[in-house]
Amino acid sequence: MDATTFSSLLRQRLATGGEATFRAGGLSMLPAIPPGARLRVVRPAADDPRPGEIYLFETARGPRAHRFVGATAEGLCFRGDNARRVEVVPAGALIGRVDALRVFGRLVPLSSPLLRAFGRAAGISLALLRRTVADRWRDRLGGRLRRFLER
Is 80 within 8 Å of 34 (Cβ atoms)? Predict the structure, then answer.
């Protein structure tokens, strides 16, 4: 099934008041959502999207589930907890809100403020760690390159 068909089926299911589940496939939402976890998606509420909540939205590369971080004149801004890049999509691309995930057979609600705060803090920590490692390697490589060029 291609991404467009999948998204339209999800929209139809959620429009009738139902819920849908799908399997997370990437690493961009670690540690809040591990790869392979089954996500439960519900229809967005009237006041959605809310910062800190995880939503399913359409992109050119297919559906994505990331955390809502804000809105701009260009559209809605989403970012994975383990991702650097913010994705801006039109408001019409919003499919649903991820309200729970099933890991090892247990349903874990994502609505708790503690879990949202943990996801945000972990995302910030991973970003800082990634920056530190990148800076360290850039300094090492830059120093080696400088020494090589000075010969």
Answer: no
Residues 6+ apart with CB under 8 A from 18: none
Of 92, 90, 93, 68, the residue nearest 80 (C-alpha): 68
pLDDT for the residue 93: 94
Q: Model pTM?
A: 0.73
76 close to 90: Cβ distance less than 8 angstroms: yes
Comparing CA positions, the residue from 121, 142, 15 lying closest to residue 150 is 142
Collapsed DSSP state (helix, strand, coil) of residue 128:
helix
Closest CA to 129 of 31, 8, 43, 51: 31
- Topology annotation, domain 3-150: Umud Fragment, subunit A (2.10.109)
Q: Which residues of the chain have pLDDT under 70?
A: 112-151
Ranges of H-type helices in 76-112: none
Q: Where are the domains of the chain?
A: 3-150
Q: For the segment 101-129, what is each residue's pLDDT rounded down to a tens digit?
A: 887 788 888 876 666 666 666 655 555 65
